[in-house]
Amino acid sequence: MLSTVIWIVSAMLAAALVMNLVRLLRGPDLSDRILALDTLYINSIGLILLFGLYRGTTLYFEAAMLIAMLGFVSTAALCKYLLRGDIIE
Q1: Which candidate, 59, 45, 49, 51, places its Cα nearest to that of 17?
Q2: How far is CA 37 from CA 51, 63, 76, 80, in A?
Q3: pTM to 2 decimals?
Q4: In this predicted model, what pLDDT tens digit does every residue of 10-57 receive, in sequence order?
Q5: Considering its fold, how many domains does the chain have in total?
Q6: Cβ contacts of residue 61 below 8 Å, gap of 6+?
Q7: Burial of 20 (0-12, 13-18, 19+ CB in 10 A)
Q8: Rounded distance between C-alpha atoms, residue 82 and residue 62, angstroms
Q9: What is the rounded distance in angstroms from the CA atom of residue 38 to the CA atom of residue 82?
Q10: CATH number assigned to the domain comprising residue 67
């Protein structure tokens, strides 16, 4: 039962990743592209966590935590660059 649910949710997350990629490429504004990139890494974290549940190992959870930290920092840096034009003051 759990394996079936994991496959269904993985397919849904894969569809969400494709839609995010389309928004990233076709976004009319830079802020839309940043938001699509932010959502893209959040969905990839979900996919990695599902794969970790499927495999039954904790190594993927640590990788997802690392991606979450890097994604947060990169989103904050991109937003700061968008607002001020410079990352380091």
Answers
A1: 45
A2: 21, 18, 12, 15
A3: 0.82
A4: 999 999 999 999 999 998 888 888 889 899 999 999 999 999 999 999
A5: 1
A6: 49, 52
A7: buried
A8: 30
A9: 14
A10: 1.10.287
The answer to whether residue 89 sits within a structural domain is: no
Long-range contacts of 68-73 (CB under 8 A, 24+ apart): 68/41, 71/38, 71/41, 71/42, 71/45
pLDDT at 79: 83
25: its two tokens? 């490429």
Please enumerate in sequence order all residues whose Cβ is within 8 A of that of 69, keeping only pairs 6 or more positions apart, or say none: none
The separation between CA 57 and the C-alpha centre of its own chain, rounded to angstroms, equals 21
Range of the domain at 68: 2-84
- Residue 89 predicted with pLDDT over 80: no
CA dist., res. 20 & res. 34, Å (int): 11
